[in-house]
Amino acid sequence: MPRTLTINGQEVSAGNEQTILEAARDANIRIPTLCHLDGLTDVGACRMCLVEVVGSNKLLPACTTRVQEGMEVHTDTERLRAYRRQIIELLFAERNHVCAVCVANGHCELQNLGIAVGMDHVRYDYLFPRLGVDLSHERFGMDHNRCILCTRCVRACDQLEGAHTIDVLGRGARSLIVRDMNIPWGESTTCTSCGKCVMACPTGALFKQGSTVAEMVHDVEKLAFLRAARERKVWNV
Amino acid sequence: MNLEELNATATNERLAQAKKNHHLHVCVGTACQALNSEQIAKALQTALRQQGRNGEAEVKCVGCPGLCSLGPLVEVASRVNGGPTQPANESPADANHRTAVLYQFVKPEDAEEIIAHLGGEPVKRLETPLDQPFFTRQTKVVLENCGKVDPERIEDYIAVGGYQALLKVLTEMTPQQVIDEITRSGLRGRGGAGFPTGLKWGTVAKADPNRYPTNVPEGIQSRKFVICNGDEGDPGAFMDRSVMEGDPHRILEGMAIAAYAVGANHGFIYVRAEYPLAVKRLRTAIRQAQRAGLLGNAIGGTAFSFNVEIRLGAGAFVCGEETALMASIEGGRGTPRPRPPFPAESGLWGCPTLINNVETLANVPPIILKGAEWFAGIGTEKSKGTKVFALTGQVKNTGLIEVPMGISLREIVFDIGGGIPDGKEFKAVQTGGPSGGCIPAQFLDMPVDYESLAKVGSIMGSGGMIVMDDSTDMIEVARFFMEFCMDESCGKCIPCRVGTVQMHRILTKIQEGKATTRDLQILEGLCDLVKHTSLCGLGQSAPNPVISTLRYFRDEYLSKVKPG
């Protein structure tokens, strides 16, 4: 049964299993996201898609909150804009995101969001952690300095490739994306070198070797296509 | 074991205990055990043998009687006029036909002297009065057996009425009646948030196990689960540990009653691995209860079956958060997930799951036995019953206390706690651990209940209560808790992962005298962000120590920042 709700004052109809994010996209209302990727399950981690719902005293992540009849959603209030900018600034301060020398410059979701939220400076102290670059794989590389720990690569590897080579080590600010039991990527015995993690990465953290500044374009749409094609059993004979 | 057999066991145990004139209770909780209390128990036994008095006295290792700062503690309960007594069932205060003496700072060398004085004058140099406010101002419900029963003997628990509530529920009540009774009692979750327990039970009972996709491992028959949250992690808090160590059977009984009420046949106790003694005693208790037919299949001869397993936490604070805890039980990384769906609808392996704190479950058996009205008669209008607190910090009597809801902070700190030592002044009390706030002296007469604590910017929390004197640097307190949250953040959501690091950095800058008023503004902005945008309770409450100290001790901050 379809549901009717309002998003930013606009009446929207949605399927009863749809999330606020999906309903908003169908109605051409953009809600910023980072950890969401079409084709992967949502984890509600980046908090960029938080929206205000009238009657709820908490902000709700649009990616994991299902629509309800008569819901009144606001996605672009001054308060939300301020929070989003703070979150983006926190990310830029957390690791060494130097766009000018980054392979993903110009094709980076973090950079695009920085522009979208109007980040002209970062109010927080840069933390400048010392993090390495893993170039042990013959075709791909991982630069932890650019990683925002969105876990899109973890989910792509697990849910689309079924390898679950990638996971998170440690916790908090010391979290690190690792392969197998924290071994160099090139030595991983479970990695199929499919490259789905590289496709899923929103920043320059995962890249094809040989790409230089601004050359790394992530093929994120392909993952959603893969997922949809499998669900529709396109390749079954 | 059915009701008749249970009653027979209780009677036999009481008779056996009544044969002894003197009962020596040695605290073997973690704190006293660290001070060699097991050696004391052995020395007492040796002394009994040497003085030829083992016929008239018995030595019993018991859980925490509360006054940890005076440990190791030995309580001697003696019969004066003869006649059968129920030694384990009475509190020292109302022992009218018995005398009880409490010895403090006992050493193994004192054993011979203690035994020699049995039946005569107590050993004056070791005695501490039992009529001091620390004991007389408390109301023990959850802790009534702690310090009285041997946690490693199921018979001792049965002798004081243990498992009566479970058999009553199984034989006389429907699940709905159990839920109604808990609802009418007004019991609220003791883990911190204070969610009405009856309502939670009712939701799980009504939840459809087929509503969400489930993925239960083979070998587990249940499609609903009961989890006891024993992942107590707040710095300075040891309420749940003491209950698990001192009265483990009561938790199992509470869980079994909950399982019957919601329709679950499998339960988990999630305990941190840092509590080895609690784990050991819970394991023993589970084994004993299974052997006695009080856990497992056909409990008490009824059709109800309930199995309990222990899961050890690997040390992450965030695993006390219910969704992270369940992820951990499932074998995944202990990280929280957004709610809804709430665990009551889709929890462990996607099944409806009831998750209650240790103290909440420990309240259940007495509510069933004494009735909802009795329980609702304790406490305030919205906060019923008692609350266990771990009283620590700059206060004379530190230890474990249980007080009725609505008691004032002043009574806790100055009567039960005995006030501030070394002639110093009271400054603040911190409740709720890293999720709570600091309450200044102006609110000392405020009643301790869920609503009042929230109103002044703190929380009830699980029960940590840290008293601070006037030499305490409040910014350092805030920085300590922020460092804790920063280290314990799971790293899943950005505001908590990075926000806590930045807040800790600014607090450090303030302490080093390098901060400006602009930093203070940024700090307040971060408090707002992290509180309102974090994924789980850890992040949402992480700024509380900073917010509350900024609110009540702003001068201290202002005196340390430069204009700019």
Describe this structure in words.
The complex is a heterodimer of chains A (237) and B (564). Chain A folds into two domains: 74 residues, Ubiquitin-like (UB roll); 137 residues, Alpha-Beta Plaits (2-Layer Sandwich), CATH 3.30.70.20. The mean pLDDT of chain A is 95. Chain A is of the alpha+beta class and 237 residues long. The longest helix of chain A has 17 residues. In chain A, 25% of the residues lie in helices and 15% in strands. In chain A, the strands form three sheets. Chain A has a five-stranded mixed β-sheet, covered by helices on one side. Chain A has a three-stranded antiparallel β-sheet with strand order 6-7-10. Chain A has a two-stranded antiparallel sheet with strand order 8-9. Chain A has six helices and ten strands. Chain B is an alpha/beta fold. Helices cover 41% and strands 14% of the residues of chain B. In chain B, the strands form three sheets. Chain B has a five-stranded mixed β-sheet, covered by helices on one side. A five-stranded mixed β-sheet of chain B has the order 11-10-14-12-13. In chain B, strands 8-7-6-9 form a four-stranded parallel β-sheet, with helices on both faces. About 3% of the residues of chain B have low confidence. Chains A and B meet through helix 2 of A and helix 18, helix 19 and helix 20 of B.
In the CATH hierarchy, what is the architecture of the largest domain in chain B at level 2?
Answer: 3-Layer(aba) Sandwich
Query: Runs of chain B with pLDDT <50, length 5+?
Result: 82-88, 90-97
Count of discrete structural domains of chain B: 4
Helical content of chain A stands at 10-25%
Mean pLDDT of chain A: 95
User: Do you know the CATH topology of the largest domain in chain B?
Assistant: Rossmann fold
Structural class of the helices, strands and pairings of chain B? Answer: alpha/beta
